[in-house]
Amino acid sequence: MSREANTLLVVHDAQRIVARVGIQEPFQRPEVDISTRVGRRSAADNAERGAYIFGDALDKAVAADEAIDVIYPFLDGDVQDWDALAALWRHILVDLLHIELENNTLFTMVALPTPISRDAFENTAQIFFEHFNTPALCISEVPLLVAYAVGVLNAIVIDIGLEESSAVPVLDCAVVPTAAVLSRIGIVHCTWWLAYLLSQDEAVVNALRPLATNAHLDAVVYAFAQTLVKEGYVYVDADMVQDGEEYDEGTFDVAAALVQGRERDVIEAHKNNKQSSAPPSKTKDFVHVPFRGIQVPVGNVRTRFYEPLLRPQLLARVTLDIPSPPCVKSALHAQEIGGEPPCVSIPEAVYQATRLVQPMGRRALLWDNLIFTGIATRAQGLIPELCRAFSVFVANDPTEVAQLVGEPNPVQARTIRAHKVPDYFVEFKDRLDLAPLLGATIYAKLVFSDYSGRNFISKMQYNEGGPSVAFAIGSA
User: Fold this and answer.
1) Which of 141, 197, 264, 388 is the one with CA 20 to 30 A from 173?
2) Which H or E element spans position 334?
3) Are strands 457-458 and 32-35 parallel, antiparallel or unpaired?
4) By three-state DSSP, how is residue 421 classified?
5) What's residue 246's pLDDT?
6) How far apart are CA 121 and CA 144, in angstroms?
7) What is the pLDDT of residue 257?
8) Rounded to an integer, what distance in angstroms lies between the CA atom of residue 21 and that of residue 32?
9) How many contiguous H segments (helices) and E segments (strands) does the chain have?
């Protein structure tokens, strides 16, 4: 009981860290939930150079247009700035969890995104042992912990984050790093697309126009789209999806209009066509959202926010007259000229991950064990819609080979199933975004309850073997 009460969990994804102290039952939600981005005073302010800013303080500084360099320690699936990451860890331990590092007695579990390189093992161990004075350390991979959370041995873990997503296979309780696929698509891209859709809605634009006195109207619309996503107003309408309706804004031939000399008539016709082709408004989908002191009417356009996850090429159609977020620029750049990581849809990322799994006979098993996690899973109806999108990879009819031999093709997926967190974990019910923390809690109970110390690194082992012992034990 004492060791369970003195266990620290630090669980990462690329854009977020959750942490708590204690793994005793009943399992609890995180005490800390903070963005992984770090701010630092720019070189112009020499007096403050070196001071890092985190969390809400960073958000306020960026909103106030202060001279701040924003650093993303995790980028493109790897750690890019260890100094910033160490400063963020110290902020979590000292400022948020109030841990006295001089008398640190907490056994520590650190979960990092896949893949974890040898440098990541060694640098993490060096920081926690030498700077944070931890007595014992276990380093694990987030996809494995997600599998522990739902209680399966084999799965594909689909993490849909803020700025990027990943699909990582887990086979026999071991992550397959060579089959991990990263994509430059996430919630920020969906928010950018939603802002574009809102800018085409006259009711929304007219309501927000009074707020644009000191700012560009598109900037206000984008801020409103961020509010809709953050406050949970977005969801996927199953009825609309099943209708199979595709809402397209069409194309406008400006050259033809100029030649024919009827510019005004064509512009008006195009405007009316956009309004008539928009999804029909339903009373139950129409809400008034409070935003900066006013009530903004929003129809079912908010049910289309997820579309870039299935069709990233939609981002090229956005014509907002404000600078796009850096991750959106990276996604468009990846679509145009390629590069790593690519910008592919969630179904395509999962398909590529399964194709990299060997032996081939294990691939069909993975399609039957999908686990979604990440902040996007909070949106109601998103997971069923993504599962429907995966149906193109499922063999509905027997193949010719199957008809000849009388058996289904073992390589081809036959069914698709998404797992959820068991209901008996009350605090984590319907919170797949917290599945990594739940899995870390379960894994830490197993690892640190073994007094032989076979699955974690003690301070004595670190003092004898140095940082390299972290890779030797952690990778095993």
Assistant:
1) 388
2) helix 326-337
3) unpaired
4) coil
5) 40
6) 16
7) 42
8) 10
9) 20, 18
SS3 letters across 220-248: HHHHHHHHHHHCCCCECCHHHHHHCCCCC
From first CA to last CA, the distance across the chain in angstroms is 27
- Residue 62's pLDDT is 81
| Beta strands, E only, 244-349 | 287-291, 294-298
Query: Which residues of the chain have a pLDDT value below 70?
Result: 1, 43-50, 238-285, 396-410, 474-476
pLDDT at 103 (0 to 100): 92
Q: What pLDDT is attached to residue 411? A: 72
Nearest one of 308, 12, 305, 279 to 141, comparing CA atoms: 12
Q: How far is CA 92 from CA 8, 55, 127, 164, 274, in A?
A: 11, 10, 14, 23, 49
**Do the Cβ atoms of 160 and 309 come closer than 8 Å?**
yes
Instruction: Round to whole Å and give the CA distance between 400 and 415.
Output: 19
Integer Cα distance of 464 and 467 in angstroms: 10
Say what the pLDDT of residue 304 is: 93
Taking the C-alpha atoms of residue 474 and residue 141, their distance in angstroms, rounded to an integer, is: 10
pLDDT of residue 402: 56
In this structure, the strands spanning 370-373 and 155-160 are parallel
pLDDT at site 259: 42
Confidence at residue 460, expressed as pLDDT on a 0 to 100 scale: 92
Q: Is the dihedral of CA 25, 27, 28, 34 positive or negative?
A: positive
Domains of the chain in sequence order: 2-37+72-146+422-474 (3.30.420.40), 152-184+341-418 (3.30.420.40), 187-323 (no CATH)
